[in-house]
Design goal:
Layout: H1 9-12, E1 14-15, E2 26-36, E3 39-48, E4 51-52, H2 55-61, E5 68-71, E6 76-79, E7 81-86, E8 88-89, E9 92-93, H3 101-115, E10 117-124, H4 129-135, E11 151-152, E12 155-158, H5 182-188, H6 191-197, E13 198-203, H7 210-221, E14 224-227, H8 234-242, E15 247-248, E16 277-280, H9 289-298, E17 303-305, E18 318-322, E19 325-330, E20 333-336, H10 349-360, H11 364-370, H12 373-379, E21 396-399, E22 405-410, E23 413-415
Parallel strand pairs: 2-5, 2-6, 7-10, 10-11, 10-12, 12-13, 13-14, 14-15, 15-16, 16-17
Antiparallel strand pairs: 1-5, 2-3, 3-4, 6-21, 8-9, 18-19, 19-20, 21-22, 22-23
GO biological process, one term: N-acetylglucosamine catabolic process
Keywords: Carbohydrate metabolism, Hydrolase, Metal-binding
Region (Disordered): 1-23
Length: 428
């Protein structure tokens, strides 16, 4: 946890003497290796007014020196982690806690921030239309801050236009088809809700009406589309991708099993031309380490680490809710109560990053980019998230050499247990 090691840092940060400026104080991160241009570079990083800045302008144009200097003690400076798929944490669930949705969003956002996840997509499982019409407005884009927690990038709406055969932990009674095209998406979600509040939607391209609707839905709302919970053949999966679906939801899970003559959605990793991004859960439970290795070798630039965490993340074992279903959490495993069906995870993004290296032997740079750059590329937001380029948001992690989070900054402000307060929901 980041906050555990942040208590005493502020008083040790050096304040340099510099002439005051109306443009705001400048902070320098020094004695560090900065993740930049696909490598770790011995360099400094400068931020001002919540953004990463070019020091040349500071030195030569404004003739200033930093107001605050932060000694990173030889650590790694990385963009903050981005989780594209998380259903809940700390006892709260985005699909089930509809009556206290603001409380759920607030506490999850703050808790995730202290873990090092500075931006995320709150995820809803397949639900009835009234749930979407009630909660989506609360899951829309929101800037990150000490007061509000991690940045919300927009909702990930997972279902209900998915395959009954590959529904996983989604409730069968909520699943739908789209035989009327966009009219069915309008009735289910409200297209304006998707346009304003959603980042992307997971759907199965073989479900009636979905494949034909993908380009229309993208044009009407501007959201991204991900193929998932799908029994699609390789031909249908490929057509969905060429029609605009740029992501695969939790690769290997809830999809057509790989077969040498018809690899299904998984086969997109072997496409000779364009290949989609893919979410992958590195908890060692959802996906065998060897499968993670196969995906990594097939398409390393498309890997997006996701937790797919549910409400029990960071809480003790017990019984919890995922949407309207009861789930049993024990020893890191999450199952629908009374079954052996996996129902999300309880892992954190920081653990996923370390596990990815353990499972694949990938470099630290590759693992970090799977949790920062690639998710931002998938959503098309690299102008502000997922990098440490000049002009990007100052969402920053200071990590030790084993990639444990030491310090967390959101919009240029340090997040600690002292200034980011949140509550955990008690066991039901």
């Amino acid at each position: 946890m980041a906050a555990a090691s942040t208590h005493s840092h502020t008083s040790n940060d050096a304040r340099a003497d510099s002439k005051p400026s109306s443009s705001g104080p400048i902070t320098q991160f020094y004695n560090c290796r900065v993740l930049r241009d696909h490598q770790l570079v011995d360099d400094s990083l400068y931020i001002q007014n919540g953004k990463i800045i070019d020091p040349a302008k500071m030195f030569w144009d404004e003739q200033r020196i930093p107001d605050v200097r932060i000694d990173c003690k030889g650590g790694i400076v990385s963009p903050g982690y981005i989780d594209l798929q998380i259903n809940g944490a700390y006892g709260f669930d985005f699909s089930n806690d509809t009556d206290i949705i603001e409380e759920a969003v607030s506490n999850i956002s703050k808790g995730l921030l202290l873990q090092g996840c500075t931006a995320y997509c709150p995820t809803t499982v397949s639900s009835r239309p009234e749930v979407y019409h009630k909660v989506l407005a609360h899951l829309g884009p929101r800037a990150g801050s000490i007061e509000d927690g991690a940045t919300i990038l927009g909702a990930h709406v997972e279902g209900p236009f998915i395959s009954p055969q590959k529904k996983g932990a989604h409730e069968l009674a909520t699943l739908r088809v789209a035989k009327n095209g966009l009219a069915d998406f309008e009735e289910c979600y409200g297209l304006n809700n998707l346009r304003k509040y959603a980042a992307y939607v997971t759907m199965a391209p073989e479900v009636e009406g979905v494949l034909e609707s993908i380009p229309k839905l993208i044009k009407a709302t501007g959201i991204c589309i991900s193929s998932g919970h799908s029994n699609a053949t390789s031909a249908v999966a490929n057509k969905a991708h060429t029609s605009g679906a740029n992501m695969i939801t939790h690769l290997f899970n809830a999809m057509h099993a790989f077969h040498q003559r018809d690899p299904g959605v998984i086969g997109l990793l072997g496409a000779s031309e364009s290949r989609p991004f893919y979410g992958i859960i590195c908890d060692g439970i959802h996906v065998h380490p060897h499968s993670v290795m196969i995906a990594y070798y097939a398409h390393p630039a498309g890997a997006c680490l996701v937790t797919d965490a549910m409400s029990a993340q960071s809480l003790p074992d017990g019984f919890y809710k995922l949407g309207e279903m009861d789930v049993d959490v024990h020893g890191g495993h999450v199952y629908i109560k009374g079954t052996n069906t996996i129902a999300g995870s309880v892992i954190t993004m920081a653990e996923c990053v370390r596990n990815f290296i353990k499972f694949t032997g990938a470099s630290k740079v590759e693992a970090l980019e799977n949790a920062t750059l690639h998710p931002a590329q998938m959503l098309g937001i690299t102008d502000r998230k997922g990098t440490l380029d000049h002009g990007a948001d100052a969402d920053i992690l200071v990590l030790d050499d084993n990639l444990f989070v030491q310090r967390v900054f959101v919009a240029g402000q340090e997040a600690t247990e002292e200034n980011v307060k949140f509550t955990k929901k008690a066991l039901s």
